[in-house]
Amino acid sequence: MSKLTQAAVIEAVRPVMDPELNLSIVDLGLLREVEIEEEEGHVTLGLTLTSPMCPMGPQIMEAARNAVLRMPGVKYCGVDLVWSPPWDPRVDASEDARAELGIWD
Predict the structure, then answer these.
(1) What stretch of H or E contains 31?
(2) Cα distance between residue 87 and residue 8, in whole Å
């Protein structure tokens, strides 16, 4: 079994898209933290949304959870919503995602 790492979890979640913006939740900076208990096969994601009223929140959370559960050695994946600090695409999104959103420095 390969070692379960934060980098591997992030890459597993990268294909999960925000359906309204059509950008990766990783590139948008919505994935805030990854906690791993490797021996137990437990992963917990700290995830924020573009707004507290995001209508696609439950679908995004479930897609992220399912992406992690497909990883070898993962038996459980929890997703915790993180609201502080609020998501700010100027700070949290990657340079490429900011460009896609039309946010220029």
Answers:
(1) strand 31-37
(2) 23
Residues 21 and 50 sit within 8 Å (Cβ to Cβ) = yes
Give pLDDT, residue 3.
83
**pTM > 0.85: yes or no:** yes
Residue type, 6: Q
CA–CA separation, 39 and 80 (whole Å): 21
CA–CA separation, 23 vs 90, rounded Å?
Answer: 15
Q: For the segment 2-39, what is each residue's pLDDT rounded down to a tens digit? A: 689 999 999 999 999 999 999 999 999 999 999 999 99
DSSP β-bridge partners for residue 45 = 34, 79
Find, among 31, 30, 14, 12, the residue nearest to 73 by Cα. Answer: 12
Q: Would you place residue 104 in the very low, low, confident or very high pLDDT band (cuts 50, 70, 90)?
A: confident
Q: Which amino acid appears at position 77 of this protein?
A: C
Domains of the chain and CATH, by start: 6-95 (3.30.300.130)
